[in-house]
Amino acid sequence: xxxxxxxxxxxxxxxxxxxxxxxxxxxxxxxxxxxxxxxxxxxxxxxxxxxxxxxxxxxxxxxxxxxxxxxxxxxxxxxxxxxxxxxxxxxxxxxxxxxxxxxxxxxxxxxxxxxxxxxxxxxxxxxxxxxxxxxxxxxxxxxxxxxxxxxxxxxxxxxxxxxxxxxxxxxxxxxxxxxxxxxxxxxxxxxxxxxxxxxxxxxxxxxxxxxxxxxxxxxxxxxxxxxxxxxxxxxxxxxxxxxxxxxxxxxxxxxxxxxxxxxxxxxxxxxxxxxxxxxxxxxxxxxxxxxxxxxxxxxxxxxxxxxxxx
Amino acid sequence: xxxxxxxxxxxxxxxxxxxxxxxxxxxxxxxxxxxxxxxxxxxxxxxxxxxxxxxxxxxxxxxxxxxxxxxxxxxxxxxxxxxxxxxxxxxxxxxxxxxxxxxxxxxxxxxxxxxxxxxxxxxxxxxxxxxxxxxxxxxxxxxxxxxxxxxxxxxxxxxxxxxxxxxxxxxxxxxxxxxxxxxxxxxxxxxxxxxxxxxxxxxxxxxxxxxxxxxxxxxxxxxxxxxxxxxxxxxxxxxxxxxxxxxxxxxxxxxxxxxxxxxxxxxxxxxxxxxxxxxxxxxxx
Lengths: 310, 285
Hints:
The complex is a heterodimer of chains A (310) and B (285). With 310 residues, chain A is an all-alpha fold. Chain A folds into 2 domains: 54 residues, no CATH class; 232 residues, MetI-like fold. Helix content of chain A is 74%, strand content 3%. Chain A is globular, with a radius of gyration of 25 Å. Chain B starts with 6 loop residues before the first helix and ends with a helix. With 285 residues, chain B is mainly α. Classes of the chains: A mainly alpha (310), B mainly alpha (285).
């Protein structure tokens, strides 16, 4: 962001001093290396955020064009209509993140400490399923959870669907087009974002620390709670952020595995842009999503007490 | 990554000495983590089995979601679906161009961050982190807002711009990690042996960073090739492969889509296997 300004500053200062040109060149080098990448991000990531904010305050219609009127009421109107979808997105993403943590932690632990010479092979296995297209994987879940599929019929026979219906996770005898299906898809699709950071944190850990704890007569559970867990916390925080954020904004799972009654905020933004063609409302919702995620992220970091992100 | 320690394997059989359950219960208690990990792997591979199996299906209806009978039609008549191969070609081209550009820009940025001290460093770090922490729907809609405001028509070029943008951060992080693990004494040794800066870079630094750049390229390509949300916001009527699949999900899914899924899985496994073999050969030499 400040690279341009800093660049100007450096080149302004240097000629005044009596310094060899080599040093001058060296001081410029980092800015020259940064310039193309940072410029690209500034123009196509930072500037668009301002356009989005600007668009969220406009009035008008798609046919007659939009006009900048700084109408902040767009936000209150959009939120009073679509707050249930916002809440639903955060609830689904929260549950999916928790499930990811429960699935990914033992997996990452196993790879880091119990895999021996199979470590690299196991790491490949963990990433490999996710090289197949996101959409194709989600469509495969559509097949797995389909009404006549083996999973649905088995769970129906075992009356598990009755329990899930009681919990509000499914509807009727179906698994597809229910919150359960959406959460299953979200959990599945963002699992590697949880597994890899936890693995990285555990892999950095010295296994002798666990041995030391056990030498001092701590039970396996206590040594996990007092040694392993705190040392892996940085990975857990990073994994939680990297899972929760894309899951909250996702609309592919809700579209392909859910039903219109379980739309997430991403579905609303998409349809406001492309079907309703109400750009200001869509932009206001999108900007609110960005802002609320920034707030959640900073709160989480403050509470978990780590600044180590990626 | 390849450092394997012997110590942890001893831990695998630690059982609390107080009360020793016998037989299968004892085995389950000792292997509880392995069992959980195996269950997780099963969950991860379940959809892949379905994708591969259903690529050999011959569906009767428009949707390929019920097993009818075995057939290799989808594999032999790969391009038989209207528009699919064209969309694949476009995705490959955009993926290659986006990889090339983002790896070039990202590697320069990574070098600047890890090899130089400069002002505004934390700001730059935040700028690089933010695209990874922003939901795709926000990035997609904000770019759409920019292009609409400036009156730029959307199509292949706007898709490419967007892909370079979101691949860039991942490239920087990957190359930076490789640079951080690099022993700077190797470069000092080269300099001590009278190599000038350019020779040191070309013969020592660059070869050592290359695996990181290769990894970043593969990551960037797969991110670009697989992106749907951001692409959808900036494509207008241009159809990349994920957009084709999205459309097919509403109109009817031909088994050829599963063939592409199975191929993507197979090809990436192949690339990884070749990479591992090359790496282990190098270690021996």
